[in-house]
Each structure stands twice: as structure tokens, then as C-alpha cells.
Predict the 3D structure of the following.
Amino acid sequence: MSDAGISDADITRTAPVPGATFGRAPHAPPLPARSLSPGQAIASALSRLWSFTLVRRLVVLVALAAIWQAAAVWKASPLLFPTFTDTVRALVAGLTQEDLLPAAVASLVVLLKGYALAVGLALVLVSLAIVTPFLKEVLLTLTAMFNPLPAIALLPLAMLWLGLGEASLLLVMVHAVLWPFALSALTGFEQVPETQRLVGRNYGLKGPAYVALILVPAALPSLLSGLKIAWAFAWRTLIAAELVFGVSSRAGGLGWYVYRNRNELLTDRVFAGLVTVIVIGLLVEVLFRAVEERTVRRWGMQR
């Protein structure tokens, strides 16, 4: 078609529209922001608040405290079942005026000693078992024998062999921690991919360096799981052992505090000691969760 055949109307129809882009529609004007009603704003804020794990945990604890208070008031027997408010007052008095805080510190010191000793020993045994098949069979046999054995069952022998002291507690603690953590560590080390093992061998890593730089990072989820399980076993075993040691040697930590107040029929103080045991357990759980968030979850090793 020649230029003479193009009319002014055709030129007008084909002229680009200002602000339009080829291949897509012109930009639509932005919609005005819709304001939320007070009810919707409150619901949105509560939804964001509920997304935090700490808030959900606090709601559960408050609900349990309310149920405890209502049940104790309905029971109306402070000697058998004190109220939550009476327990809180006894807890504050025990921390400020009595020996509840020193008892908790003494228990934690013994726990950390036995825990660290057992974890170190388990890592050595598992590292040797990974290298030598015969030692692996030895470790699996010992784990199958001693892991089902309650640690508190060894307490009479520990008292007979080592006397009434910290050494007996440490023996019981090592037994409680060693076998479950060794089993978790061995499982984690065996699940390390062969490609990562080859990387370590290509770099010439052997012995402790190979374990520390290749096996431990790759098996970290299993190691953290084993540490949590071992911690729970150790904490329960320690409190139970301190009950016996308190009877025997007139000394002890939280277990002795609970036993002594039970003999004096101070039930609110008994509950205060038990609440202290629970609170310490919750704080340790928060610590483990924080470590997981900053390691295995951040690295994509665990959901």
C-alpha cells in the first residue's frame, strides 16, 4: 500500500496512547488502601502474636496454672494439694530466704560434670567404633546390655564401691548419659554420606581431625537429638539419686530439698522444689531449641 492510500484516520488509530506500553495494558491507577476496622486490626495483631512459639508456650503454662489453681481450691486440702499461689509464695521464699537456690546450683554443678564426662567418653568410643568394625560390635553389645538398665539401679553398687559422695553420683550420671548418646552418635556417624567422607580423605584428614571436621558437622542433627535425650535421662536420674543421698548423708541438691520438706509436711515447699526442677528443664529445652535454630535449621539439615 502506498503512502497516498493511508488516511488521517488510520494514522490516528495506530498512534500510541500516551502512558501505554506495547504488549500489555496501560498501568491501572493504584487502589486506595482499605482501612481495617478495630476488630480486624485486633485480630490481625493477635494472629501475628500467636505465630511466636514463646507466646504459645506461655498460653499453655497460664492455662495449666489456672487449672491447678481451680483444682486445688476445689480440693480444699493444702496439706495434700496446695494452690498455685501458695506454691509461688513458697518458691519465692525458698529462693530468697531458704536454701532452694544453692540446692539448684549444687544439682546443676554435679549434672554438668557427669554430663560432660559421659559425652566426651561416648564420642571417643563412637569414633573408635567407626574406625574398627570389632569395636563397633563391642559398643553395640554394651549399648544393648546397659541402655535398658535404669541408672538409679546402680546407685547401691555405686555407694558400696565409691562411698557417699560426689563420685557415686557421677558414676550414676555417666551411666545415664553414656549409652543413649553413644547410640545416637553412632547412628549419626553411620548416616554421613560417602561423598563427604571422600572429601575428608582427599584432604588427608585422619583421626580426631576427620571426626571433628567431617563426621560431627554432618551428623549434627543426630548429635543434638542424642544430647537432648541424654540430658532428660541425666536430670531425672540426678534428682532421684539425690533423694537417696539426702537420706544417707544429710546433703544434696534439689532432690534432698524435696525429700526434707516432704518429711516436714511442707507440701507447698515440695511443690516449689518440683516447679524448680520443671523450670530448669524448660530453660534447657529453650537452649537446645536456640542451638538448633542457629545450626541445623538454618543450614537446611532439619525442618
Q: What stands out?
A: The two ends are 67 Å apart (CA to CA).
